[in-house]
Amino acid sequence: MRVILSRTYRFPVLVVLIVGISVSACDTFVEDVDLPINTIDDEQLNTEEQVPFLIQGVQSRFSTTYDRIAVLSGGLSDELVFDRRAGTATFPSFEEIESGHVSFANFSNDFVYNAVGELRFLSDNLLARLEKISFADADLKNQAAFIGNFYGGLARYFLATYYGISPTEGGGVISEDPDNPAPFTPSSEMYGLAIEKLNTALALADGYHTRVIYTVIARIELFRGNYSESQAAAQLGLMMGDEPFVSLHTRDNNNFWWDEAGNGRLQWVVDARFNQYVEDDPSEAARIPLIPTEGADGTIFYQQNLYPDAETPFPFATWQENELILAEVAVRNSDIPGARSRLDDIRASHGLGGLGPISLNTIISEREKELFTMGMRLVDQRRFDLWHLDAGTWQYLPLTQNERNQNPNF
After folding, report:
1. Can you give the pLDDT at residue 41?
2. Is the separation of the CB atoms in 320 and 215 below 8 Å?
3. Which of 114, 113, 117, 221 is nearest to 164 (CA)?
4. Of 35, 152, 208, 252, which sits 20 to 30 A from 83 (CA to CA)?
């Protein structure tokens, strides 16, 4: 049975878990996740009445994880700059990330890694609870199964894409038994685990979410260099006119771009080349909106203005990205007319004119403009060999000191 999700389920519901879950000895969040302060008995959550609460907890954790990962990965990439002359830049942990010399004990990274772990745990834990509950409402059970698999897949995608055991070796750890921590799983294998979860979610998805899932799978296969598989998935992905799949935010659960790289507090400014793109073609301001800001020494910096308010939604997957994937594969297959058509459709959606000659460099340029702030630039720098820092610097966020302390496998 396919689940027809309401608009509430389409976008993450921002209800924070205000009580925790008492975890039995056979379960664990992940190695590096704090136990909750306020708890209720674990068994009290194993009822049909509590399933909507559990669903909302998973969705809420996604909305407070993705934006933070995107900001930190933007800082580690050449997309954002931490400069103490600009705005209110003061965090040493951000300064470490910007330099690529990231300590295992970096506070900001530890906070985000903890959030990824909780998203993975809450998703998997929801699925485990479904086996213990007798449902009168089959649709609710299917909704919960979709949520657990979909967001469990995204959590594994985050680990594969953004975390690493060494500066150039990506991947993460998923342990089910705290007494027997799991070994490190390389990105290639972790991506496979993500796709397994997403494929399970497909059997429960409505039409829109089916297309979202195929776009995410296409993205993963693109990152893995599996271009035929990426193309096949993208052909079933988001279509022109589809709404973006976003995380929603509130004043209590604000958009982290606003919070640390925007009007809330300006610790991260954008690289100066983005302003140059707008100066070269003022119509680019439609997809790269910037605000100039004067630094302490008079230097002019630029902040992103895609997320001007704490509540501004944050896109995770768009039809434009899906077309970029298909355009890249077309270029790799020497189908230049096909690539141009897709790129021109993307640009037209922002009021931009068509392109001239098309090459892989065109794809790289269009991706960093179209996917600005979405956490893609770090991956593109790695896969296109465009690293901007010295050799030996971190190209992934490192697995944290707490993770390493608690796991004897590394």
Report:
1. 61
2. no
3. 113
4. 252
Question: For 215-228, b where at least 16 C-beta lie within 10 A, e where not — what string?
Answer: bbbbbbbbbbeebe
Residue 390 CB burial class (10 angstroms; 0-12, 13-18, ≥19): exposed
In this prediction, residue 72 has a pLDDT band, given cuts at 50, 70 and 90, of very high
Extract the tokens encoding 300.
């002019």
For 33, the token pair is: 């996740």
Least Cα distance to 13 among 315, 318, 253, 256 occurs for 253
Task: Give pTM, 2 decimals.
Answer: 0.90
The predicted structure's pLDDT at residue 45: 86
Domains, the chain: 7-252+312-383 (1.25.40.390)
Question: What's the mean pLDDT in 180-203?
Answer: 96
Please say whether the beta carbons of 251 and 16 come within 8 A.
Answer: no
DSSP-derived secondary structure for 40-86: E-GGGG-SGGGHHHHHHHHHHHHHTTHHHHHHHHHHHTTSEE--TTS
Give the pair of three-digit tokens for residue 385: 């060999």
Tokens of 171: 């991947």
Question: Which parts of 100-244 fold into alpha helices (H)?
Answer: 107-130, 138-162, 187-202, 207-223, 227-234
Do 250 and 338 contact (CB within 8 A), yes or no? Answer: no
Cross-strand bridge partners of residue 398: 164
CA distance 378 to 73: 6
Return the amino acid letter for 403: E
Least confident of 5-19, 54-68, 246-260, 326-340: 5-19
User: Which among 177, 114, 208 is positioned nearest to 397, based on CA atoms?
Assistant: 114
Please list the residues that pair with 317 across neighbouring strands: 245
